[in-house]
Specification:
By secondary structure, this protein is of the alpha+beta class. The protein contains seven helices and four strands, in the order H-H-E-H-E-H-E-E-H-H-H. It has a four-stranded antiparallel sheet, covered by helices on one side. A hairpin with a 3-residue loop joins strand 3 and strand 4.
Length: about 220
């Protein structure tokens, strides 16, 4: 009996050490991936993405993919390789909002050509397009994966709030609550909060809460 307990304890110790080494190796792998993506021009990412962008240009603007391109970033933002999680790659246009110059006469300040700023970031636009494509899913977060002279690509992490695997996961089942329905369209994702100026707190941020519009009305 004592020998069996000792053997079980030994087996448990070995398993725990192996799991620890595997987790450590996994973290190291994520570290190297993150370093390569931090400076893509100086790593293998540049050549790899040049080849991928050739294929991505031929694909639809919103396409579901099997796994994240940047696994480290996706995991950091809450992605898990389990049922209920969906990754969508979205292509959005680049460039400014300069308008066509009017043919009739105007004062330069009334031309309405320059100095037009978008109210949303391209990342938030990508999240909203993914949410419209998959209306039964909720947007968790997103990240940049590539760009060329004409387009930018973002990968959007989406969650199915009605899936049993999501409902039983204590780390993500908060998104199943009714107040999170359509969160991307109400500026509640990370990209939405950044556009709304909610990254800053305290002095200097008095007029961004509860919203800029509400602060102007006051």
């Amino acid at each position: 009996m004592i020998e069996s307990r000792t053997a079980d304890k030994f087996r448990w110790d070995v398993t725990a050490r192996l799991n620890h080494k595997l987790m450590r190796g996994e973290k190291m792998a994520y570290k190297y991936i993150a370093e390569a993506w931090k400076k893509p021009d100086e790593s293998y990412v540049e050549e790899l993405m040049r080849q991928r962008l050739v294929e991505w240009r031929k694909q639809p603007a919103v396409v579901r993919i099997d796994k994240p391109t940047r696994l480290d970033r996706a995991r950091a933002l809450g992605y898990k390789a389990k049922q209920g999680f969906v990754v969508v790659r979205v292509r959005v246009r680049r460039g400014g909002l300069r308008k066509q110059r009017p043919r009739s006469g105007r004062r330069p300040k009334r031309m309405g050509v320059r100095k037009y700023k978008p109210a949303k970031s391209l990342r938030l636009i990508a999240e909203e397009r993914a949410a419209r494509k998959f209306p039964n899913l909720e947007v968790l977060n997103s990240y940049w994966v590539g760009e060329d002279g004409r387009y930018k690509w973002f990968e959007v992490i989406m969650v199915d709030p009605n899936h049993p695997a999501i409902k039983s996961d204590k780390d993500i089942n908060w998104i199943c609550q009714k107040q999170h329905k359509g969160r991307v369209f109400r500026g509640l994702t990370s990209a939405g909060k950044k556009v709304r100026g909610l990254r800053k707190k305290g002095r200097g941020a008095e007029k961004v809460r509860p919203s800029r519009k509400a602060a102007r009305e006051d």
